[in-house]
Every structure is written in structure tokens, then in C-alpha cells.
Design brief:
The chain contains 6 helices and 3 strands, in the order ααβααββαα. The two termini are about 25 Å apart. It has a single domain, classed as Winged helix-like DNA-binding domain superfamily/Winged helix DNA-binding domain (Arc Repressor Mutant, subunit A, Orthogonal Bundle), CATH 1.10.10.10. The radius of gyration is 15 Å and the shape is globular. By secondary structure, it is mainly alpha-helical.
Length: about 130
């Protein structure tokens, strides 16, 4: 892995697994963080777009990925709404709490997001 040697051994494996599986872009991380602050509240794409300062189209794709991964619940209809699934909410609240106090975990998340950003365009180019 690309993390500094031994650094990821000090962090709870469940939190590391969540980061490695679901925090694969800055927008995913931002959407998850916002949803985690709402204690199970439902949000429309437009509400999330206002809070995150992103375009609804960007968020639609990201939320679709998170729903497919099973970490976000969706209420479909004329205007879909989203919230964290309960197991995700528990893990994500723990992740945010530990991240607040752990410079090491913040470094892991930043490194993983940077790695995702650097490998993302190359992957997209190779797929095209």
C-alpha cells in the first residue's frame, strides 16, 4: 500500500477498510461527512449541493455510487432523497471522531484521496 510503513497498523482496521473502500474521492468524503452530521435526516441532491458547494449533477453520480456500495440509503421518487445507512452512520461517526483526534488517520485519508486523484484521470483515460 502507499501509506507510510507501519502507520496504518496503528489505526482500527474497520476504519481503514471503510476509508479504502468508500472514501475514494474528495466529493464522496464530503458527501459522507455532511450526511453524518444529520443524525439520519434525509437530504435532496439540491440540499447537499448547497451545503457542499457542488453541482447537483456531480453529486448525483457520487450518491449513486454510494447507494450502489450500500453505505447510503435512497428514497426514490420525483426528487430522490439520501441518508446514511445505519451501519454506515455508526462507522462514519467513529471515523470522524477518531480523525478529529488523530493526525495519523487524517494523513491516511489525505494520502488516499491524493492517490485516488492521481490515479483517477489515468484510469478514466485508459478506459476511454
Amino acid at each position: 500500500m502507499f501509506f507510510p510503513s507501519g502507520l496504518d497498523e496503528q489505526i482500527d482496521p474497520a476504519l481503514l477498510a471503510f476509508v479504502k473502500c468508500h472514501v475514494t474521492s474528495p466529493l464522496k468524503w464530503e458527501a459522507l461527512r455532511v450526511l453524518a452530521t444529520q443524525d439520519g435526516g434525509w437530504f435532496s441532491v439540491e440540499q447537499l449541493a448547497r451545503i457542499t458547494h457542488k453541482q447537483p449533477a456531480e453529486l448525483n453520480a457520487t450518491l449513486g455510487q454510494l447507494v450502489a456500495e450500500g453505505v447510503v440509503d435512497a428514497l426514490t421518487g420525483d426528487m430522490p432523497n439520501y441518508r446514511l445507512s445505519e451501519p454506515t452512520a455508526v462507522v462514519l461517526r467513529r471515523l470522524i471522531n477518531v480523525t478529529t483526534h488523530s493526525q495519523e488517520l487524517r494523513a491516511i485519508i489525505a494520502a488516499y484521496l491524493q492517490h485516488s486523484r492521481l490515479s483517477g484521470p489515468a484510469t478514466a483515460t485508459a478506459a476511454a
